[in-house]
Specification:
Layout (H helix, E strand, L loop, with lengths): L1 H17 L1 H7 L5 H8 L3 H29 L2 H19 L4 H29 L2 H15 L1 H14 L4 H22 L14 H13 L1 H31 L6 H22 L5 H25 L3 H27 L6 H22 L9 H23 L9
Helix pairs in contact: 1-6, 1-7, 2-6, 2-8, 3-4, 4-5, 4-6, 4-15, 5-6, 5-9, 6-15, 7-12, 7-14, 11-14, 11-15, 11-16, 12-14, 13-14, 13-16
């Protein structure tokens, strides 16, 4: 019981760092129109700050991951959280929109340390079934953040302006700095760290990119997660413009987030009782079937309930595949867990950035690009599994 309580507390602590991503991206979204007016610019320009933040989150992981392999997890995390505090406050008092966009990139860049290093810490401390269970628990807790961050932003702006949102994010960075100093112990001993040369970093990335099994699980994870970005970008228009359910949109959006949590809970219950790869295949099959139903529904403009249920099941499949694909990808990468976690995280953002614009190719009143995009993510994820994981080269087998 004490170990279980410790695991939940430890997962809560690491989830706080993972929450930096959604809080950095989502918390100020409701303030964008007001910010455009305050900066004297248009909507498309102020929306570039969102792109800059996402780009920072993606690029930053590729840098901070290897740094944590060289210098350990704790010190880079403390420095990054202190820089996040400064970047957030600088965003709050930015004198112009151009500087604000640049600061948003920096804010996303340093926030990425929370995402990538928290995952590397998991690999340092756990392996096998224990890592599957802990990642499932971490996924359950972490997925609460995207559900509450937009609401938290709206709540802050009822008392203050958008400036208060970034002051709040700065205080969050200060809190995480303190939590790292007094609550997180170093998980990577000096003897397990890698040399700090650029050549060594590039060699490590090259070794990971050549590892068929690692890249197979990483691509499945990233491609399917791109479906989440497509869902986030497409459902506001489909639910509200095509099905006319504007009053219930936020509730339905939250329920689909609950699907990811339930999928992760499914993994947590079955880990140790069923082979991880079998659970993984169940999740991948569920994603394919749900995506096929989504495509059929949008092409036929079927009943809303059937579409919503299919999207809910697709979200649940993400909750199943995500923790296990991460575990199986990271299992043999203990010495370079930071670099491995960086590739896993950056692929999600990179592929998500590709998928998001595709859903709007035919305009805001057409749903077929959304259905095609979701279906293609499930199909390409399945192809990546078959080619790279199911039939790996002998050298890529797990130890």
């Amino acid at each position: 019981m004490q170990t279980k309580r410790y695991s939940i507390l430890f997962a809560l602590m690491l989830s706080a760092f993972s929450a930096l991503g959604p809080f950095t991206v989502d918390m100020y979204l409701s303030s964008l129109p007001r910010m455009a007016a305050d900066f004297g610019t248009n909507a498309s320009t102020i929306q570039m700050s969102l792109t800059a933040g996402l780009l920072g989150l993606g690029v930053g992981q590729l840098v901070t991951g290897p740094i944590s392999d060289v210098y350990g997890r704790r010190r880079p995390l403390i420095i990054s959280m202190l820089l996040y505090l400064l970047a957030s406050l600088a965003c709050a008092f930015s004198p112009g929109v151009g500087i604000f966009i640049a600061l948003r990139f920096i804010q996303g860049f340093v926030a990425s340390a929370g995402l990538v290093i928290s995952r590397a810490i998991v690999r340092d401390r756990y392996s096998g079934v224990e890592m599957v269970r802990f990642m499932a628990l971490l996924t359950i807790i972490s997925n609460i953040a995207p559900l509450v961050s937009p609401t938290a932003g709206s709540l802050v702006t009822t008392f203050t302006s958008w400036i208060g949102v970034f002051v709040f994010l700065g205080l969050l960075g200060l809190f995480l700095s303190g939590m790292t100093m007094w609550g997180i112990k170093e998980s990577l001993p000096v003897e397990r760290r890698v040399p700090g040369s650029l050549a060594e970093v590039l060699r490590n990335y090259g070794a990971l990119l050549r590892n068929r099994s690692f890249m197979g699980f990483a691509l499945v994870n990233g491609i399917l997660f791109a479906g989440v970005f497509a869902y986030v970008a497409g459902t506001p228009f489909i639910y509200q413009n095509m099905y006319g359910i504007s009053p219930l949109f936020s509730v339905l959006f939250a329920l689909n987030g609950l699907g990811i949590i339930l999928g992760s809970q499914f993994v947590k219950r079955l880990a140790g009782r069923m082979d991880e790869r079998r659970i993984f295949r169940i999740g991948l099959l569920l994603a394919f079937v749900a995506a096929a139903v989504i495509l059929i529904e949008v092409l036929a403009h079927g009943p809303f309930f059937a579409l919503f249920l299919a999207i809910f099941l697709f979200a649940a499949s993400i909750g199943i595949v995500g923790p296990i694909s991460f575990t199986l990808a990271m299992e043999s990468q203990g010495h370079i867990a930071g670099s491995a976690a960086a590739i896993l995280g950056s692929l999600q953002f990179a592929l998500g950035a590709v998928a998001s614009p595709l859903v709007g190719l035919a305009g805001e009143n057409a749903a077929w690009p959304f259905g095609v995009t979701i279906f293609m993510t499930s199909m390409l994820a399945s192809v990546a599994y078959v080619i790279l994981v199911k039939r790996p080269a002998p050298a890529a087998q797990f130890n």
